[in-house]
Amino acid sequence: FRLLDVMRLRSTPVTAASLAVDLGISVRSIYRDIADLQAMGAPIRGEGGLGYVMERGYFLPSLRFEADELDAIILGLKLVHERAAPVLDGAAVRAAAKISSVLGEGQKDSMIDPALEAGPSRTMYGDGNSATYATLRAAISAREFLTIGYRNSEGRLSTREARPLGLTLFENAWLLTIWSEAAQDFRHLRLDRISSVITTGKRFRLERGKRFKDAIDIERGKIALQTPVS
User: Fold this and answer.
1) CB 51 within 8 A of CB 14
2) Cα distance between the two ends of the chain
3) Concatenated DSSP letters for the chain?
4) 45-77 pLDDT, tens per residue?
5) pLDDT in tens, 174-186
6) 177 and 166 in contact (C-beta within 8 Å)?
7) pTM of the prediction?
8) Which of 132, 165, 137, 167 is nearest to 150 (CA)?
């Protein structure tokens, strides 16, 4: 079942060797376990020369989590409840209810009366206007170009057409990551400095080098370069 959990997180084929490293077992065990899962009806297929992939739409609920896994889920939901926009606040409560419904009695108590808590944040999303946040989330999901009015730290106002890629929550601010069509580069905009958001109805396709993941990888690389080596 740990193997199924790993497979469900993959959107592309993965080799038996890679799975063996992730799970700390032998490649032979991977072959055996995948054969067992296929016999149980799990739709895992082998891709010649590429590895294994699980068909989309297959869900097998885990009825029991490891203690640290459940702690991670509880704390994550608490953080969302306290620090995200109202639309995700409600989603966190509903998700907690669904998870608790499939847990055993002991772990269900941990969900209902957890020993973990998250404090509130002063972070606002677009001057406290959750409509801005909701519009951005919808555009990110639909991959829709936006025309964004933005006021920088010096108060200078600019307008740009951009691909909205992702949102990141920091302690004191939400950041919107965009691909700027004018600059042909990534930009990170504070939501509390966004003055206007206009939907265009135009869609964009994800392109390698222009994705949210690519922007995050670049920022992580910058942090790694700044970290002193002992």
Assistant:
1) yes
2) 40
3) -HHHHHHHT-SS-B-HHHHHHHHTS-HHHHHHHHHHHHHTT--EEEETTTEEEEPTT-----S---HHHHHHHHHHHHHHHHHS-HHHHHHHHHHHHHHHHTS-HHHHHHHHS-S---------SSTT-HHHHHHHHHHHHHTEEEEEEEE-TT--EEEEEEEEEEEEE-SS-EEEEEEETTTTEEEEEEGGGEEEEEEEEEE----TTSSHHHHHHHHHHHHHHHSPP-
4) 886 567 898 876 665 555 567 788 888 888 888
5) 889 999 999 999 9
6) yes
7) 0.61
8) 132
Reading the block at residue 157, the tokens are 């106002």
Q: Which of 59, 126, 133 is nearest to 89 (CA)?
A: 133
Judging by DSSP bridges, how do beta strands 144-151 and 157-169 pair with one another?
antiparallel
Q: Which pair of structure tokens corresponds to residue 104?
A: 């055993």
Packed helices 130-142 and 86-101: angle between N→C axes, nearest 10 degrees: 70
Provide CB contacts within 8 A for 38, sequence distance 6+: 44
Report the candidate in 17, 42, 49 with the shortest Cα–Cα distance to residue 31: 17
Q: Which amino acid is at 60?
A: L
Q: List the structure tokens of 17.
A: 């060797």
Report, as an integer, the average pLDDT of 217-226: 75
d(CA 162, CA 178): 6
Round the average pLDDT of the chain to a whole number and report it.
Answer: 82
Encoded amino acid at 135, one letter:
T
